[in-house]
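Objective 1b. Sequence-to-structure analysis of Beta-galactosidase.
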Amino acid sequence: MRRHDKPHRIIAGAMHYFRIHPDQWQDRIERLVSMGVNTLDTYVAWNFHQPAKGIAPDFDGPRDLTRFIRLAGEAGLDVIVRPGPYICAEWDNGGFPAWVTADPRMVLRSSDPLFIAAVESWFDVLIPVLAPLQWIHGGPIVALQVENEYGSYGDDARYLRWNRKALLDRGITEMLFTADGGTDYFLDGGSLPEVWAAATLGSRGEEADATWKRRRPGEPFFTVEFWNGWFDHWGEDHHTRDAQDASAEVKKILDLSGSVCLYMAHGGTNFGLTAGANHDGVIQPTVTSYDSDAPIGEDGSLGEKYHAMREIFFQAQGRDLTPVPDHLQEQVPVLDEQCFEMAQGVSLLDFVRAGEAVVSVKPLSFEELGLDRGLVHYQASAVLPRGGGFLKIGGLHDRAYVWIGGRYVGVLHDGNARDGIAVPGDGNLETLEILVENQGRINYGPFLGQGKGILEGVFVNQRLVFHWEQRVVNLERPLTQLLAATGNCGFGDVGSHAGGPGQSAAVPGFFHGQFHVSTPADTHLALPGFGKGVVWINGFLLGRFWDIGPQVTLYIPSPLLVVGTNIVTVLDYEGGGTYGQLRNKPDLGIVGVSHVEDLS
């Protein structure tokens, strides 16, 4: 590859603005620069900018894409932008807004006119944001990606060519490229002869380079995603990758005169309900942390992998290895460790029963109810068989908490919902209540865009239950509004203490606690004794937690804290604890085997 008629290689790191608090963008970019890269790579998440139909895309505050790109440019970095519209990225719905994928007539990621029209309306807004930031106009953007790993999904070359033309027609003049796995199979479906082809892989780069020399002679080899770490699903061990192993694989690519981008260089956090999910027989929801064992940790810490990659990057560019700047080597300030009491508030059932009911004969899906993420409370009456029976749910996505006559009877999920759960009965009419949780929309594979909620029906043995009331629980509404809907806005009489573990609370629902801060700094929140749910910090929806792990602590960046009293609010679907903890380092769970063997 040549630039300004001189040899040039892209040495890049992926970093997503939507996974970093905007007050920390500058810091994370500085750490990236110090690692020795010359380029920053980022996806653009459509649903982050336009979550609801009929509203203008938002590019302000944490969504100020222009500011993020300019900060990278001011730091001396080129920028690669990957606008999708599909991004995967372990991000909810692969970046698609749920209101787009809800249309059952639409064929996603294809030349279907319905899909093309939806993407065109988005590109008509997004691309004019990006075009002035191109290198030709004095900006840092030097390349943009056409779609994303399409060879893993489909074979509609007409759609890929439309995607390329859509960028060109809207003023993109910089390099365009596709990205696919490092084998013939993926190239067959995802590449175009007229567009530079890049690779995504985590090992066997030499084999991929040989494939490119055979299939794409004369093209510079670029691994646009080198998986130097991996993400976690709830219920798994925490994935890591040895620093020396990862850096040695990168060196092989660079020694072949290839270009490389670390995915991720800094992972960040799936704040709120933005974590996606995979599917392998059952749903596999992704955890809140997107640390990904990256060289720059979720909290900005610089690990062994950072220094190993840095040494290789400097060497590949013929640069003398200089020390990391002192202010970046210093330990990131953290709050002192402490415990604080959590007091019980509104119960889960009282909370989810408080909304306005939507009536239907059959249960309605999240999409039919106009809900993207959160919960739906379903209620109906049914005659339960004498001697009991089984309550079954057809098409459950994803997890259901079940009550009969106000008595909790258990949990169903997409793996056991058709088998059902045993329920008591005496031949009389009983009230059924089912609370369904969306655990994250699928971000990869053929189930992309799959609906949430109860998609088929509810059965007592083989008999369908009809006439339902549904109440939408949009957890992304302001917390004050959520609490006000229950008639209880207070946080209770809570304070700090230094006690140890307490007994789990019997009733799931809201819990409130507080801690005092004299100087805001990062911290890591643990919730011993709590089960499964979501947590807010000062009204900001921090993310999901689940006691099955692997993630134990949730990262709280310092900009979310204030001098004085800080409020922790927990909604637990399964129970609750009596205290919370602030810890001075993360606990992302038991470390499992390296994921390297599955990366290509």
